[in-house]
Specification:
Elements: H1 2-48, H2 51-79, H3 87-105, H4 115-133, H5 148-182, H6 193-229, H7 237-255, H8 264-291
Length: 301
C-alpha cells in the first residue's frame, strides 16, 4: 500500500514536470515566431523606409520580450533555480536580455529602427539554436555551479553582453548609414548627420557602462574558478577569449580619447569587440569540440 502511494506521488511529479515542459516549449516557439515577425517588420522598414513598419516591429518586439520574460519566469519555477545553467537556458537569457536592453535604450530616440534589425535577428537566432539543437530537459545543478559566485558571474556577464550587442547594432547602423547620408541617399530612416553623431555617443556610453560589468564578471569568474577547481586562472579557452574581449574593448575606450582614432578606427574596434564577445559566448564551445581542446566549461555546451 505504501509502495503504491509512493509510485502515485512519483507519477504525479512526472506528469506535472512533463506538462510544464510542454507548456514551456509551446511558449518558447511562440516567442521565436514573434522575434521572427518583428525582424520581418524591421527588414521591411529597412527596404521601404516606411515608418509604419518600424513602429509595428518595435511594438511586436515589446510584446515578444514581455512573453519571453514570462517564459523565463516559468523556467525558473520549473527548475527551482536560476535559469542559466545549460546552453539552452543561456541562449534564451541572451536573447531576452539583448532585446530588453535595446527597448530600454531606444527610448532615447524616435523613428530610428535600423539598430533593432541586428538585435531581433540575434535574438531569433539564439532562440532557434536553443530549440532546434539543445535539450530542454531540466538538469540538476552540477557541482561546479553550486557556488555563491555562479549567479553573480553569469548575470554580470550577460548584462554586459546585452549592452555590447546594442552598442554594436548602433555602431553598425552609423557605419552603414553615415556615408549614404553624406550623399543624400538615406532619407526616411529618421536619421540626420547630427543624429548619427548622437548615436555614436550612445554606442560609446553603452560600452563605457558594459565594460566594468565585464570586468567584474571576469573577476567573479576567477573567484568561482578558485572555489570550484582550486585556481583562479587556467588559460581555459573561454577564459582566454573573455580576456581577449576585455582587451579589445579596452583598446576601443582608449581609442575614443585619441583624436586620430576616435572616428572609424574606434568604431571598428567596437565591432571587433562584439565579434570577440560572440566568440567567447558561443564560438569557443564549437572550437573546443571541433579541435578536441580540453575545457573546464564543457558543461555549458
Amino acid at each position: 500500500m505504501l509502495k503504491s502511494a509512493s509510485m502515485s506521488s512519483y507519477d504525479l511529479i512526472l506528469s506535472r514536470d512533463s506538462y510544464l515542459l510542454g507548456l514551456e516549449l509551446r511558449l518558447y516557439w511562440s516567442v521565436a515566431f514573434l522575434y521572427g515577425l518583428s525582424l520581418l517588420f524591421f527588414i521591411s522598414h529597412a527596404i521601404t523606409r516606411g515608418d509604419t513598419a518600424g513602429k509595428t516591429g518595435q511594438t511586436t518586439l515589446l510584446v515578444t520580450v514581455t512573453a519571453h520574460i514570462a517564459l523565463i519566469v516559468l523556467r525558473t519555477f520549473e527548475a527551482g533555480r536560476a535559469p542559466f545553467q545549460t546552453l539552452y537556458e543561456t541562449l534564451s537569457w541572451f536573447a531576452c536580455s539583448s532585446s530588453l536592453t535595446y527597448l530600454y535604450v531606444s527610448r532615447r530616440w524616435r523613428s530610428v529602427y535600423l539598430p533593432a534589425t541586428l538585435v531581433a535577428g540575434l535574438s531569433l537566432g539564439a532562440c532557434l539554436y536553443a530549440l532546434l539543437s539543445r535539450s530542454p530537459a531540466v538538469e540538476p545543478l552540477s557541482p561546479p555551479l553550486q557556488s555563491y559566485w555562479f549567479e553573480w558571474h553569469v548575470i554580470l556577464a550577460f548584462f554586459s553582453y546585452a549592452v555590447f550587442v546594442v552598442s554594436a547594432a548602433i555602431e553598425l547602423t552609423c557605419l552603414i548609414i553615415k556615408p549614404l547620408l553624406s550623399r543624400g541617399a538615406a532619407r526616411g530612416y529618421g536619421l540626420t548627420l547630427d543624429a548619427i553623431d548622437g548615436l555614436h555617443t550612445t554606442a560609446y556610453r553603452l560600452v563605457l557602462f558594459g565594460y566594468p560589468l565585464l570586468t567584474f564578471a571576469i573577476f567573479s569568474g576567477a573567484a568561482w574558478a578558485n572555489e570550484a577547481w582550486g585556481r583562479y586562472w587556467s588559460w581555459d579557452p573561454k577564459e582566454t577569449w573573455s580576456l581577449i574581449t576585455w582587451t579589445v574593448f579596452t583598446i576601443y575606450l582608449h581609442s575614443k580619447a585619441i583624436p586620430g582614432l576616435k572616428g572609424l578606427p574606434a568604431s571598428l574596434f567596437n565591432i571587433l569587440g562584439f565579434v570577440c564577445m560572440m566568440m567567447t559566448f558561443l564560438g569557443v564551445n564549437w572550437l573546443a569540440k571541433l579541435l578536441g581542446i580540453p575545457s573546464l566549461h564543457v558543461y555549458a555546451v
